[in-house]
């Protein structure tokens, strides 16, 4: 109770006490709901696969093992997919953020002749899009299907990110750019030497959005590159495992059959344990990064939301 | 061929922003002065036209009997055939029903929960605790739908799912429920999964709106003896109204976007009749069955309806004297 009181803070009337206590209890409940699925998955991932089938794994593993992770890391296909995931995240984010920032800089310049035209051309695409099939045919026409570049080029500039960066640059004091101009700085110099360094908070936000989007993407792999195992990503591999176990769920219990077949070996894996281990592997990088950028993305989102 | 044709008419329109009678000349003079800015943006405008506007030209496919082996300009025209087929196909209406139902449920649930949570977060007095709750509530938003769908199907699994275990222990059910096997539960599951994933994230914008409210109003209300709930009802909620209206308008424009990933990943043969939405319909007809024309017709239907919704909502807001998008 002391603890609850401390969280609830100072109050005056009895009404306030009730309100604050209920609120704090609700928030704790909310946190449990948000965290439990992940914690449970971690426990399953660290538990022996055959033991998991017995059920009853909640917050911590019953029979601890690293074997599920070892198994995932031991599969060369999954390792390769991990490399592609990292590559598309790193390259995709760097290229996309740079290009987005550059266009955002140009449409933030009041004197730019095409300011209106470029802005409207981009914003319109938020509401108008050709849809899946025409886009697919275009990719085929451009021979992007079956290449790594289909992960980078079609999504090069996101309109929302463009607006967020533009709003940020427009909020910078004009005098900085004017004095640079008087000193003879061209547009490129102003962009690289002034706009980019000052934009670091918003660049951090947009980078997070783009990187998370790249890392989590599976649909483009599924649509364009499912015939190319060498271009598969971790999320797509996880998606395939999920689809398989969903299918087995509706057509009898294939999961247990699989383990029985390998029964003689001391350590086995099941689709469930592999899925848990992979879920942890693909989620941990993001979970480790986003809390540190919280200050930035809250600001970035608000800026884009209000002005966009 | 087709790639070079569409951009041309649009590419000449920048002549529009000319301000003075000497329009075109002035425009070219300015262009010369702003070579660097043009160099920095035009390559991406070309990218934009190829990747975002050229696909619009593909809409013609919906009025053709499209055969992938032929170039787009040499297809046989089919008139409205595919639209007629679409609107007489009972499956299409089921799909439309699912789409509207799921996006309506997501919209209402999403709004109510995010606004509610934002208000409750704002009422927390211990700022460190508030920060921690916020950080935790943002977490699911950063997970992919593949992961989220995996977590959802694990939580709902018949034998070991936490939902069944809790309901069982509370004595609310006798036999474990196969949640993903009962079609009627699917909309609710998607709604709940969507709330779980996005409620924390969606509070960000509302919390920002709350901080814009003048604190003097709260002080005055306190002096007048208004209770916490009264202050929420008479100050906080009205203060959030402009933001709520704007977001509502934006979301009405996406009324046919009920989401794709969650449905696709949680769908199975048993719940398919309630799970298949427009996007999955397009994917199934277009990519899996190769009926590009019909799939494109369904896609066009979606875009056109969304546009109509967006504009109607916007003009409605205008008439009601509320903030609006454009």
From TrEMBL, chain A:
Its main location: membrane. It is found in: Cell membrane. Keywords: Cell membrane, Membrane, Transmembrane, Transmembrane helix, Transport. InterPro entries: MetI-like, MetI-like_sf. It holds the Pfam family BPD_transp_1. Residues 82-293 form the ABC transmembrane type-1 domain. The chain crosses the membrane at residues 21-39, 86-105, 117-136, 148-169, 190-212, 274-293. The keyword Transport applies. It is a multi-pass membrane protein. Belongs to the binding-protein-dependent transport system permease family. This is Aldouronate transport system permease protein. It comes from Evansella vedderi.
UniProtKB/TrEMBL annotation, chain B:
It comes from Evansella vedderi. Keywords: Membrane, Transmembrane, Transmembrane helix, Transport. Belongs to the binding-protein-dependent transport system permease family. It comes from the Bacteria. Residues 96-313 form the ABC transmembrane type-1 domain. Its main location: membrane. The chain crosses the membrane at residues 36-54, 100-121, 142-166, 186-211, 232-256, 292-311. This is Aldouronate transport system permease protein. Pfam families: BPD_transp_1. It is found in: Cell membrane; Membrane. It is a multi-pass membrane protein. InterPro entries: MetI-like, MetI-like_sf. Coiled coil: none annotated. Signal peptide: none annotated.
């Amino acid at each position: 109770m002391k603890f609850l009181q401390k969280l609830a803070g100072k109050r005056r009337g009895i009404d306030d006490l009730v309100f604050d206590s209920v609120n704090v209890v609700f928030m704790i409940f909310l946190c449990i709901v948000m965290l439990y699925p992940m914690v449970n998955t971690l426990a399953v991932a660290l538990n022996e696969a055959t033991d998991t089938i017995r059920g009853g794994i909640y917050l911590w593993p019953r029979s601890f093992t690293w074997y599920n992770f070892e198994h995932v890391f031991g599969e060369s296909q999954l390792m390769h997919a991990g490399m592609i995931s990292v590559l598309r995240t790193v390259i995709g984010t760097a290229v996309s953020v740079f290009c987005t920032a550059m266009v955002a800089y140009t449409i933030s310049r009041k004197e730019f002749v095409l300011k209106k035209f470029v802005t409207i051309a981009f914003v319109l695409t938020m509401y108008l899009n050709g849809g899946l099939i025409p886009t697919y045919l275009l990719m085929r026409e451009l021979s992007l299907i079956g290449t790594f570049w289909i992960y980078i080029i079609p999504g090069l500039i996101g309109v929302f990110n463009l607006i967020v960066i533009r709003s940020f640059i427009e909020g910078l004091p004009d005098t900085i750019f004017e004095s640079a101009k008087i000193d003879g700085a061209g547009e490129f110099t102003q962009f690289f030497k002034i706009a980019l360094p000052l934009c670091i908070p918003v660049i951090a936000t947009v980078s997070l959005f783009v990187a998370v989007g790249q890392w989590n993407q599976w649909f483009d792999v599924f649509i364009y590159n499912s015939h190319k195992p060498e271009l598969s990503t971790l999320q797509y591999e996880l998606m395939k495992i999920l689809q398989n176990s969903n299918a087995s769920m509706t057509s009898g219990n294939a999961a247990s059959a699989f383990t029985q077949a390998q029964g003689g070996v001391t350590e086995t894996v099941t689709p469930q344990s592999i899925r848990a281990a992979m879920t942890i592997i693909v989620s941990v990088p993001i979970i480790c990064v986003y809390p540190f950028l919280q200050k930035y993305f809250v600001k970035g989102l608000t800026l884009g939301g209000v002005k966009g | 061929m087709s790639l070079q044709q569409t951009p041309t008419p649009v590419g000449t329109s920048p002549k529009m922003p000319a301000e003075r009678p000497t329009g075109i000349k002035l425009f070219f003079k300015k262009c010369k002065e702003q070579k660097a800015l043009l160099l920095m943006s035009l390559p991406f405008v070309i990218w934009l036209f190829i990747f975002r506007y050229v696909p619009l030209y593909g809409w013609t496919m919906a009025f053709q009997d499209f055969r992938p082996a032929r170039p787009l300009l040499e297809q046989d025209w089919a008139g409205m055939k595919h639209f007629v087929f679409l609107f007489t196909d009972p499956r299409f209406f089921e799909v439309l029903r699912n789409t509207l139902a799921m996006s309506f449920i997501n919209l209402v649930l999403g709004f109510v929960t995010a606004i509610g949570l934002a208000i409750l977060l704002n009422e927390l007095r211990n700022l460190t605790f508030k920060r921690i709750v916020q950080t935790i509530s943002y977490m699911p938003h950063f997970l992919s739908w593949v992961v989220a769908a995996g977590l959802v199907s694990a939580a709902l699994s018949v034998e070991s799912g936490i939902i069944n275990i809790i309901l069982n222990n509370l004595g609310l059910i006798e036999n474990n429920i196969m949640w993903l096997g009962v079609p009627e539960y699917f909309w609710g599951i998607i709604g709940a999964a969507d709330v779980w994933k996005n409620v924390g994230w969606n509070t960000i914008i509302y919390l920002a709106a709350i901080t814009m409210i003048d604190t003097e109003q709260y002080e005055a209300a306190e002096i007048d003896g208004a209770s916490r709930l009264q202050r929420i009802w008479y100050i906080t909620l009205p203060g959030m109204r402009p933001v709520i209206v704007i977001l509502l308008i934006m979301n009405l424009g996406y009324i046919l976007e009920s989401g794709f990933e969650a449905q696709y990943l949680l769908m199975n043969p048993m719940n398919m009749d309630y799970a298949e939405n427009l996007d999955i319909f397009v994917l199934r007809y277009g990519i899996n069955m190769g009926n590009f024309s019909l799939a494109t017709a369904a896609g066009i239907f979606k875009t056109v309806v969304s546009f109509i919704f967006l504009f109607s909502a916007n003009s409605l807001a205008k008439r009601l004297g509320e903030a609006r998008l454009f």
